[in-house]
Structure formats: C-alpha cells, structure tokens
Amino acid sequence: MRQIQILNDPFLGTEDGLMGPNALGFLIRLAFDLVTVTLIVRGIYRRHSFRSELQFTLFSMNLVIFLISYLLNEVEMTMGAAFGLFAVFSMLRYRTENISARDMTYVFIVIAVGLLTAVSGGGWLQLALICGVVCGGLWLLESGRILEREHVQQVHYDRIDLIGPGKLEELMADLRQRTGLDITRVEVGHIDLLKDSAQLSVYHR
Question: In angstroms, rounded to a whole number, what is the distance separating the alpha carbons of residues 125 and 195?
Fold first, then answer.
C-alpha cells in the first residue's frame, strides 16, 4: 500500500509557517521595512521632491517586493534569483507620464529596501544598521551638506530672440531679473514659432 506524504501547510501553524515561530521574524522584518519606507517617503521625499500621486506607488511597490522576496526566500530562493527579481522591478518605466530621474531613484530605493529587509541574513542589529544607513545617506544627500542642491522649473518664455547661439548670458540675465531666481543653467525645449514662445527648463539653487 502506497504511503502518502503530507506536506506542511504554511498556514496551519506548523514550525516553518507564517503562523508558527517564524511569524515573529516576519513581523519584525515587516516593521523594519515599513518604518524605513515611511521615513524615506514622508520624512525625506515629501520635503524635497514631493509628488503626492507617487506616494501610493512607492509604498505599494515596496510592500509587494517585500512580500514576494520574503515568501520566495522561504523556499530557498538563490541570491541570483533575488537579484534577477530586483533587476526586473528596477527597470520598470511608466509610459503614461514623464517621471524625473530623482523620482525614479526613489522608486529604485524603496524596491531595494523591500528586498534587503526581506532576505537579509544578518541579525536585527545589522538590519537596523542597514536601514539607518539608507535613511541617513538620503537625508545627507537631500540636505545639501554633501551635494549642492539644484532645482528645476518649467518656464514658458516669450522672448525667442534671446534663444540662440551667443545669447546665453543675456537670456539668463533676463530670466534672473524676471523670476528673481539664482539661475545656474537653462535648457531649451519646445519652440513655438507661431506664438513666439519657448518651453525652458530653468535650473536654480
């Protein structure tokens, strides 16, 4: 008579399931992940590069990455598979609207945090140190203490006679006088000859 081997059900309180002893580890990792992402999004991103519609994306992508990585890690996911999953999600692009490089960097960071907190093999002190380094590094970079911050603003400009070779200094002087901003550089985008106007990306401190 054949014997039927019954596998452990991860939801029935077995030793290896989420409702067993591993539940505490899962909850601690989830707490580290959520606290870190909240500090990044609400404490750093919101103060320097805030886009309210992107908050949902940052939180939801982080949570999904954390859950997928943790569950796959429970079935002995290899490090190569983990980095493959990370690479797939890090290459995502949103085709419906333009997302700045800074916003995409934050998407990349919350994905990395979800992966690190889910599969890190170190102790809780090491996990706390990793999360602290990520938050502290971002805060320093955004504060301008290490890198000089440069803001960008889109401007509809009505003097296309100043848009041309040899007139950059005159163009920047006119923009500084009319906007009151400490402008460092200007990039010319779309030019509308019918309306005698142009779309400029104005960078200022």
Answer: 61
Long-range CB contacts for residues 57-64, cutoff 8 Å, separation at least 24: 57/107, 58/106, 58/107, 58/110, 59/110, 61/89, 61/107, 61/110, 61/111, 61/114, 62/33, 62/37, 62/110, 62/111, 62/113, 62/114, 63/33, 63/34, 63/114, 64/114
Residue whose tokens read 């203490």: 145
Check: pTM over 0.90? Answer yes or no.
Answer: no
Share of the chain above pLDDT 90, in %: 14
Sole residue written with tokens 């460092």: 184
State how far the Cα of 55 lies from the Cα of 121, in Å rounded to an integer: 29
- Amino acid symbol at 186: V
Residue that the structure tokens 């400490």 belong to: 182
Which tokens in the block code for residue 138?
Answer: 């971002």
Q: Tokens 């010319």: give the residue.
A: 188
Tokens representing residue 190 in the block: 């779309």
> How many helices, marked H, and strands, marked E, lie in the chain?
7, 3
Structure tokens, 198: 């142009």
Determine the 3-state secondary structure of 184 from DSSP: strand
